[in-house]
């Protein structure tokens, strides 16, 4: 009793560590009461027991251990700091509790694991339980499997990650212990409830008897999906909802059921198979053999390997090229089918990783559709469909468009059918206007094809597109089709069934505005304002012409919708492109113009327009102006009014006061009325003639600007510049260029015909008059604000003296941003008011619209197999020669399309890893050229070629790394960051233990991420490697990781970043105590670095 009285005086935490088991038992009992009594989960009292909880569960005395487990469970349930003990406590449960004979101990151990999951530590618990499956004690293995099963049953597949569980499941069926096999069977049944058939592929290799037993159990399961019955602390809203449903005994809604079961991809549960090393060593020799039997043997060997559902990533370039050659050139159609199946297998097994090779093989497959044998066509369809899923329609669009004009109807038919199948996998986001517009244009041509199978395929593709993105988005591209064809497209759209029961992108497919739109148009004349009285007494011909004009005019009046959008005669389809939205009218005769003007202008005004007395003409202009200012804009006959202004003496007016008034009235009519391009054509000549006039030039420029607002600046500028350079008046030319430079700043650069302006600017630069040359250089400076460096490429052939002047002007613009537009075209403003969202906007890519204006050359025909062979030659001199030729081709073309052949990217990628560093740098220079020349089209080459630039950042030579970073920045400037962050490519690069690569990459990410509004979710894949870099032995890597850390959290959020730290482990648990403590401190420092800046922000 003396001993008892001695430890009875100790505090609770001291009792829990006492050598006497009775003391510990008493300590655990008191601790349990204390834990149940403390109401504040953040009480400092909890901190005293942080280091003791593991001892609670691993007590050597069975009786004390039971009470310790109860106390530990209470601690985990109530203490805010309990999560910090997850790893060590669950590890203790696995090794010291699950091997106990008492069922109560195992039950409490399982409850502890489940409670840790409830407090958001599912990943750590799961990792420890999976480690327990490697234990030699079968009791521990059985208990771990049972704990996993219960966790899945209660929390569901969204909380318990199934991939690692399924990965080890088949191994458990091979156990010698029947108890392990039986528990594995129960776990397999539970997993099947949540993911259904996705579990079948990973278990195909288990014993056939066991598989049969599983099949029998699976059949017995109810078809309804299971429900999550236990919830995380962060899911209290779901818990309340679940309890409410249970209380009223109601059924879960379909939406809730769908949300309850996390969609699991069977592919993600599979182990990747490495097949490149298993290929026959003589494959590449046999595939070139003259005997078809040998080629068949080689292909069949590869086909067997590609049947593996998931393939290990690797360099498949040579294999893909060999298969492509068979598909494109082999005369034996049976071998073509086998090769196509191999390509389909590679695409299915590699998924997104095959996207690198997609552009290389798709053109060949499309061309091969000329074959008519069903088995070949089917194999090619399967191959191209599988390949499509590895890339995007945007990346393939140029290859598809290239064959849409093919003379072979089979190729056109299959290309359209491929588009129809591809559209089904798209959404409104993945099928933007920029991609859809050219494809629809090509399909519309095929709608009129002479071959019925081609027409039907085109209708099907257009109907599918309409179903996916909605009628409103597609209709602007169908303006030229008659009603029968439109109805056929809508009929096809109604028949389309999207995968997974997805709904289409718009409500328009079910509505039929086309049938209802014409009646209002027909009634429009009755609804419009009453015609002027004087026109009733005109001759019948004049009256007829006038009625025609009024009918058109009244259509113009109702043309724009409530928010300013015009309605087409084809059935109310909204057209978003400027050409389709513009106001159009026919030219009016002089008689009709006078009659219409007489209805809105005072008689004295019309009589004095051509008076010989300038004062009377001035008085007439003043009356004219007052009439226009007070006139109802809805009935203003703009063309008739400007034709009256052009009446003799018209634009040859000699009195500057009258001319100033006349030019001002033109601007007034433009701004107040519905001014068309037909009306503009009447006055542009006169305005251009006066733009250089000292007294009237300002008014002329005002008129030009007003026409720009009415008819769009691109059209106005093109007309004006062509007119002025048809003259020989240098003053007019110089002032026109000055006006245009200012107008670009006011209106912005959208829609400008760059190619046309470049030619006229070159003419101006060669002018003898210095004022014209100066104005041209000033205009180039403004264009440089919008176009940047690519603009200079158009003038590289100019004389050095002139080029230096241009460079000096560009230098002035360096660092300046284009001003925000101050003026807008009326139609554009109306579209903005309507909230038009049809235009695709790039968040992080710079200037796509501007770059798209540049005329581009297709250089794919110059990328010959001979050139590619040179780039890949064993002799470095020949490789250099190939690179020189490539650089020359790009330099000569200046601006190129995205189509550079499928083999050139792979060849250049190979040179980035060249042993000759000079060639590496030359390749980087070519890639910089490529970025400037290709522009935004470069996006489709990011995965195939761009990621390899990142790899070069790990080179040991500073000059090579600098060149790689310069190249990378040049690419990102054109592509934006989104494509780089998608997928696991960047995380794989960051995973490499290369200090140069890590510090360069992290510095680059720290610079780019803050400028992005959103990031792909795949950025999360980089976080574990970022944490590793925080404790890298290289100081520069640690520094860059610390700089990058806030930028990651800016997008991913505190919760995700904090959750990822739960995977950080203290390494080498079996090292000596001192070393273990050091590593523990290191682990804590890593966590502190992760969140130090967050605490700083909170303060």
Automatic annotation (TrEMBL):
Gene Ontology annotations of biological process type: establishment or maintenance of microtubule cytoskeleton polarity; microtubule polymerization; spindle organization
InterPro entries tied to this protein: ARM-like (IPR011989), ARM-type_fold (IPR016024), HEAT_type_2 (IPR021133), TOG (IPR034085), XMAP215 (IPR045110), XMAP215_CLASP_TOG (IPR048491)
Biased amino acid composition, Acidic residues: 831-846
Domain (TOG): residue spans on this chain: 1-227, 268-502, 587-819, 852-1076
Domain of life: Eukaryota
PROSITE patterns: HEAT_REPEAT
Keyword Cytoplasm found: yes
HEAT repeat coordinates: 439-477, 1022-1059
Annotated SMART domains: TOG
Keyword Repeat belongs to the record: yes
PANTHER family: MICROTUBULE ASSOCIATED PROTEIN XMAP215
Family stated for the protein in its record: Belongs to the TOG/XMAP215 family.
Name of the protein this chain belongs to: Cytoskeleton associated protein 5
Record organism: Sparus aurata (Gilthead sea bream)
Native organism taxonomy: Eukaryota, Metazoa, Chordata, Craniata, Vertebrata
